[in-house]
Amino acid sequence: MEAALRRLPSHGWINGWFGRRDRALLVVAGAGVPYRRIAALTAGDVALIDGVAAINTTIRSVTLHPDEDPVLCGPCALVRWLRALHLALTSPATRTLAGAIDRAAAVDGASPHLCRSRRPIAQGIGAVPLLPPIDPRGHLAIDPRPLSPHSLSFLARGNTTGPGAVHRVDPRTPNEPQPPPPPATPVVPPPTP
Ligand SMILES: [Zn+2]
């Protein structure tokens, strides 16, 4: 799991967008929350108190304590994901999100601990599933549903068993013009007899 956390990017469109979500999944799963409970979590089920993340799983509250290393810090992973999710849900164009993730600095040992920030983390998006699906171009559904327990398990295993393609991605900037369609094959008139 540590290797996966060190590998997953938090910056750069589009992989940083997937990477933030998958990192959030890994830290919650790593805290022992079963996939079927993770699938039921909403953004509002995560609270941050003095750097400690509390995850309300209906059965019990699970706490994630900060790690000294910002790359491995579970509460930081949740804040980074929730900030991006908030932007995705509240800005009209996906390119706003893409620009923000593109401009984000790589997370390393010297990065600030966002878990110490006092900014609210899920204001206005509390009812949204914590981990929704992202399509290959980086879009969320208009009314996001949660990833299924099966998909969560697939993603967590895919990310922890080694670098590999767990996502189908289209890295073009959102709202970039689509490539023109291939020219239609000219219809050759039948030879005249
Ligand atoms: Zn932290």
Describe this structure in words.
By secondary structure, the chain is mainly alpha-helical. The chain is built from six helices and three strands, in the order H-H-H-E-E-E-H-H-H. The chain has a three-stranded antiparallel beta sheet, with helices on one face. Strand 2 (about 50-55) and strand 3 (about 60-65) form a beta hairpin. Helix 2 crosses helix 4 (about 75-90). It is globular and about 80 Å long. The relative contact order is 0.20. The model has no long low-confidence stretch (mean pLDDT about 90). It binds zinc ion. Zinc ion (ZN) binds next to helix 4. Zinc ion (ZN) binds near residues 66, 70, 73, 75 and 113.
List its salient traits.
193 residues, mainly alpha, 3-stranded antiparallel beta sheet, 34% helix, binds zinc ion
Beta-strand percent range = 5-15%
Using only CA atoms, what is the Rg? Answer: 20 Å
Mean pLDDT: 89
Q: What percent of the residues sit in helical stretches (DSSP H or I)?
A: 25-40%
Task: State the separation between the terminal residues, measured CA to CA.
Answer: 73 Å
Describe the largest sheet: 3 strands, antiparallel
**What is the general shape?**
globular
Strand order of the largest sheet: 1-2-3
Number of alpha- plus pi-helical segments:
6
Question: In a few lines, what is going on in this structure?
Answer:
The chain has 193 residues and is mostly helical. It has six helices and three strands, in the order αααβββααα. Helix 2 crosses helix 4 and helix 2 crosses helix 6 (149-160).
